[in-house]
Predict the structure.
Amino acid sequence: MALPLLEAMSPALALADAARKSPLRMAFIYIPNGIHMPDWTPTTEGAGFTLPYVLEPLKPFQKDLLVLSGLTLDKARANGDGAGDHARAMSTFLTGRQAKKTHGADIKVGISVDQFAAERIGKHTQFPSLELGCDRGLNSGNCDSGYSCAYSANISWRTESTPMAKEVNPRLVFERLFANQSKDDVAAALGKRERYRLSVLDFVMDDARQLKTKLGSNDQRKLDEYLAAVRALETRIVKAGQGQSPAKVTKYDTPSGIPTDYKEHLTLMADMIVLAFQSDLTRIATLVFANDGSNRSYSFIGVPEGHHDLSHHGGSKDKQKRIRQINQFHIAQLAYLLQKLKSITDGERSLLDSSMIVYGSGIGDGNAHNHDNLPILVAGHGGGTLRTGRHIRFPKETPLMNLYVSMLDRVGAGTKSFGDSTGPLPNLG
């Protein structure tokens, strides 16, 4: 079982230098169907801006944020291919390439930025990258006006024609991360542990106790906190699986461990990212809140209508009000992730200080289906390379990929261009 960085792992004289060189992490979080932009975009630029309604849950982290206006996904536009904005939005968000319009086997878009980075720095961790989501991926069928379901259900692409399947079952993610097994061995190991009712930590607790006798007080505290967090997460996953509806499992063939509570599902996936970053199992992650075009109901926050249907509000004030409720709910889940990252020490910094978390959508306004002036923010300080606490407005048609070029350089996977980029994004540091 992987452990977080402990003082005992580095010579005392080199500790400060090791802290300064804490590895950078990147996560990309995707939300579908655009945003109600008037309630997203700050009215002023620079520092000291007022958070609009949708971003209010991020108030405790305002100094850790960059709200970036004016960024564009040109390759998500039709460019002669007609309808299909949802498929293009999601498949282009991390690739910056035009998706081939097909619903056959000849899908093609481009390698995504997370996988580009994983090829270059993934060798430093047990898992080159982590792909998570709350909606299942589909790799065939016609899901959006002649576009394959692969486009609207996958954000991460290993090659231009091979999507990286996202894992939607928190329990299987947990088993893979913390049981030190291949994906093929997870199911068998889970069955054995359930028969004996053993926790992951039960297998390693004797070793942990022996290790603690060799650690200083700070390391002992950090180890206890880490093991407690893993235990708590495992317990929540078990409870989430027990709360499933048998009828729903049968209908959708859903693996055990997927919560019926959407908020709990999101928080469990956020916890997976935090613990994977904390233990340096991976430094690259993606999390898809829902596939683009999702018509999920949000009745648990008083919005029973489908998300996609509401996004086509046609100027209705009532529908806009409900859309912004959904938008704020999503942001609240981001705030949960940021709080967890900020609460964990990583050398002399926090995990949030050593991270760059991109949050956004490949559609601007859901009703207009535009792909310019996208809702994009970056949380975290990038190891001190980002000057946060600001709203920055870039010139029209500035490629979103320029942001990724700047991020790739910071994590040690530098490239002169990516997707349809025109260069690094200025004024970030």
